[in-house]
Design a protein that fits this description.
CATH architecture of the largest domain: 3-Layer(aba) Sandwich
Strand order of the largest sheet: 2-3-4-5
Helix content: 10-25%
Radius of gyration: 20 Å
CATH topology of the largest domain: Rossmann fold
Number of domains: 2
Oligomer: single chain
Largest sheet: 4 strands, parallel
Order of helices and strands: HEHEHEHEHEEEEE
CATH class of the largest domain: Alpha Beta
Number of strands: 9
Distance between the termini: 24 Å
CATH superfamily of the largest domain: Alpha/Beta hydrolase fold, catalytic domain
Length: 284
């Protein structure tokens, strides 16, 4: 699951499927007929997705793993609390607090109160400022799922302090199931190797636009075709913005293709009831 920008991000699922895992890229916001606001998300949608994937004939029994980025990481933590069908999950750079979305978990049990969107608007791109003195942690260790928690030390959206607080509040007997890795010099999004990266973003869901660079680097949406990379050797140091100027002398160049999807992986569009996403199945 990706973050609060919404849409359907397939690149991580197809990379894992190409390495032998059955993977379901789940959309939950701003995609097809799904909600456009975090406040309208129904947590039962995610529980239904877990049940659907866990019962799929191509998925081994014994529990599934969940990988979530940003808001998707928060939802992964909530799933770790809500169902014992999630045996392990990885949370890629997110907070431990609940921003407006998921409601109840189980009969009579409610997720800690939501922080209002006004808090985020006032804090700008440093979202964590809207949560000071309001930190309520998800007890994601509840069902003994194994947790891999990845953070960027230079994240300008969520402070690394939240991750350390999460570890500190976890019961000592549960900590053996948690691995926290904090990468120095790393920002909010931690992506797989060799995929295109970007230095700015626009979140239409939260109405936040920290500014788009002059030459934005966009993520490739179609994972069935390769990402084409052109390497050039030039005779001097040239800023990226001036690379295509007529005075640039290219000494040599080559064209490389980096594939997301192995040719044996099956891509299946999923529209089961309210579920929206894509299932990637490796060769059997």
């Amino acid at each position: 699951m990706f973050g609060s920008t919404g849409g359907l991000a397939e690149f991580r699922a197809v990379l894992m499927a190409s390495r032998g895992f059955a993977c379901f890229a789940l959309a939950y916001l701003r995609c097809d007929d799904l909600p456009t606001s975090l406040a309208d998300i129904d947590f039962d949608y995610f529980l239904d997705a877990v049940d659907w994937l866990a019962s799929h004939p191509s998925v081994q029994p014994g529990g599934i793993g969940v990988v979530g980025t940003s808001k998707g990481g928060e939802l992964a933590f909530l799933l770790g609390m809500a169902t014992d069908q999630v045996s392990e999950f990885s949370r890629l750079r997110t907070s431990n607090v609940n921003i407006p979305s998921a409601a109840s978990i189980g009969e009579g049990s409610v997720v800690p109160r939501c922080i209002q969107l006004d808090d985020l608007y006032k804090s700008g791109r440093d979202f964590w400022k809207g949560f000071e003195n309001q930190i309520l942690l998800h007890q994601a260790w509840t069902n003994n799922a194994k947790i891999l928690y990845l953070c960027g030390e230079d994240d300008g959206v969520w402070r690394t302090d939240f991750a350390n607080t999460f570890i500190g509040t976890c019961p000592e007997e549960k900590r053996k199931n948690i691995e926290l890795i904090i990468y120095p010099g790393t920002g909010h999004l931690i992506e797989p190797p060799y995929v295109p990266v970007f230095t700015s973003w626009n979140n239409k869901t939260l109405g936040v636009d920290p500014g788009v660079s002059k030459d934005p680097l966009l993520r490739k949406r179609d994972v069935t075709t390769p990402f084409v990379l052109k390497l050039s050797v030039i005779d001097d140091h040239v800023p990226f913005a001036d690379f295509h100027m007529a005075t640039t002398v290219v000494l040599a160049s080559d064209r490389l293709e980096r594939w997301y999807k192995h040719n044996t992986v099956r891509r299946i569009v999923v529209r089961e009831g309210s579920l929206r996403g894509t299932l990637f199945l490796p060769a059997e």
